[in-house]
Amino acid sequence: xxxxxxxxxxxxxxxxxxxxxxxxxxxxxxxxxxxxxxxxxxxxxxxxxxxxxxxxxxxxxxxxxxxxxxxxxxxxxxxxxxxxxxxxxxxxxxxxxxxxxxxxxxxxxxxxxxxx
Length: 116
Ligand SMILES: O=C(O)C(=O)C[C@]1(C(=O)O)C=C[C@@H](O)C=C1
Known about the structure:
Bound molecules: prephenic acid
Protein name: Chorismate mutase
CATH architecture: Up-down Bundle
Distance between the termini: 55 Å
Structural class: alpha+beta
Number of domains: 1
Keywords: Coiled coil, Isomerase
Coiled coil: 29-63
Domain Chorismate mutase: 23-114
Strand order of the largest sheet: 1-2
Radius of gyration: 21 Å
CATH topology: Chorismate Mutase Domain, subunit A
Number of strands: 2
Organism: Candidatus Nanohalobium constans
Oligomer: single chain
């Protein structure tokens, strides 16, 4: 079966030629998914890197008898995500939601470190 393809149109202004160039190409669902796979891979590696640092924070807090949860810091992290999302034309609330999920993963990890 022939896969349907989506026409993608774009353009850019080239200063050297003082000309606007148009381009058009087509993408299939399979090609979009390949792009998503690559991004998933990069995201998962970054999350793994974040979790390595979180583990060290967990050890630090354990050694210094500190509370795992720090609501002030959580707000700062959520604001960072909201700002970055907004800069990329995404709703800030979705950035806060993603930060919330990452922080809950971090808390789980730090609780495991505490019990070791
Ligand atoms: O910065 C900390 O103190 C952390 O433990 C990390 C982290 C986070 O995931 O960003 C997780 C839990 C805290 O409530 C605040 C922030």
